[in-house]
Design goal:
polypeptide N-acetylgalactosaminyltransferase activity, transmembrane, Glyco_trans_2-like, Spore Coat Polysaccharide Biosynthesis Protein SpsA, Chain A, alpha/beta, Glycosyltransferase 2-like domain-containing protein
Length: 385
């Protein structure tokens, strides 16, 4: 009996030691694997070059290259933006800013400091914007075939809504001026300004003076909606929609410039089918020089992370061989135009959204006939962030 107990004890001890040995071996193998992974550099597999059918001029590649450049600019701007207590250090290094890569070499040191501070505040060259005409001319970037199209006179009227918070006053006013100057007067019923609780003093008294002066000549033409607290982009758009009275509502950022002939093709598409949600074709206002950068025609979609993306137009559009034709898109990026009552019928936008971006995908899901990229008219968007 004593021998049996000792045997059991010995066996138990061997089992315990064996288990501990296995654990130690696993730890050692894990450490070695981690050590090798940290020492040796993984060489990524090269991605196959993509060429989409119908993309004869490489428009997709140009879109991707421009987006890559835009991402680099944003990242550099984030690195340049000073935190609290770092303004003096930023002033000393203003000559290294991307703002002055293609502009401002003739400015005095003091003016460069002013320009840099405005750039860090707005995300674009507010210093230059303040010195440009509010009615500056822009080139007609429409495809040639679009300029010869005619439209019926009985198109529905549109309410243009501008959403902003702490926008540069000159950029906002230029958006308004271009909307008035380049939209036929019989089609533009009103402009609605939604201020999402800006703290910029210029957007209070000076903006109100402009609104009052305009309304003295055209009573009720510009409506102001001011939020008592910051609501965010989604709820601001819904606020603008609630204030609109025209049959069609156009929801835009407040840093755009409208081009000639932007409204008629969009309003005609909606008149033909009120369930269409339309995005104009966009070109780019360079954040540093405010020069116009023409973008190729594209569809608008999203990736698996639900980030919005410019896409090569579908095969069906290329096969039409007609650049005046609209481009169907699964999503909309940013600004869009919609029948006012139909927008309510599909539930507007989800006012529970706290961060912008998801509404672009949401609209594609809500509406089964979303149409983007109206190629016969367009706007020019100032890329700031």
């Amino acid at each position: 009996m004593a021998c049996t107990r000792r045997t059991k004890t010995l066996v138990s001890t061997c089992v315990i030691l064996s288990g501990m040995t296995n654990i130690v071996c696993l730890l050692y193998v894990g450490w070695v694997t981690n050590y090798i992974a940290n020492i040796y550099i993984k060489v990524p597999m090269p991605l196959p070059e993509r060429k989409l059918e119908g993309d004869k001029r490489g428009d997709t590649l140009r879109i991707m290259e421009r987006l890559d450049r835009l991402e680099n600019v944003v990242n550099q701007h984030i690195q340049e933006t000073p935190g609290r207590g770092e303004e003096s250090q930023a002033d000393k290094s203003f000559s290294d800013s991307s703002l002055f890569a293609h502009w401002g070499q003739d400015l005095s040191p003091e003016n460069r400091r002013v320009a840099l501070k405005m750039f860090q505040y707005y995300g674009y060259n507010g210093y230059l914007s303040d010195r440009l005409s509010l009615d500056r001319p822009t080139s007609d970037l429409r495809p040639e075939g679009c300029r010869n199209l005619t439209y019926p006179l009985n198109l529905p009227q549109v309410s243009i809504v501008f959403i902003f918070v702490n926008e540069a006053l000159s950029v906002l006013l230029r958006s308004i001026h271009s909307a008035i100057n380049r939209t036929p007067s019989h089609l533009l019923k009103e402009i609605i300004l939604v201020d999402d609780n800006s703290s910029n003093d210029e957007l209070k008294e000076k903006l109100q003076d402009f609104v009052s002066e305009t309304n003295s000549q055209h009573p009720g033409f510009i409506k102001m909606v001011r939020h008592a607290k910051q609501e965010g982009l989604i709820r601001s758009r819904v606020s603008g929609w609630r204030a609109a009275t025209a049959p069609v509502v156009a929801l835009f950022d407040a840093h755009v410039e409208f081009n000639v002939g932007w409204a008629e093709p969009i309003l005609q598409r909606i008149q033909e089918d009120r369930t269409r949600i339309i995005s104009p074709s966009f070109d780019n206002i360079k954040y540093d020089t405010f020069e116009i950068d023409e973008y190729p025609l594209s569809a608008q979609g999203f990736d698996w992370e639900l980030w919005c993306r410019y896409l090569n137009p579908p095969k069906s559009w290329w096969h039409k061989d007609n650049k005046t034709a609209p481009i169907q898109s699964p999503a909309l990026i940013g600004c869009f135009v919609v029948d006012r009552l139909y927008f309510e019928e599909i539930g507007l936008l989800d006012e529970g959204m706290e961060v912008y971006g998801g509404e672009n995908v949401e609209l594609g899901i809500r509406s089964s006939s979303t149409t983007g990229g109206s190629t016969t008219g367009g706007t020019i968007l100032l890329r700031d962030r």
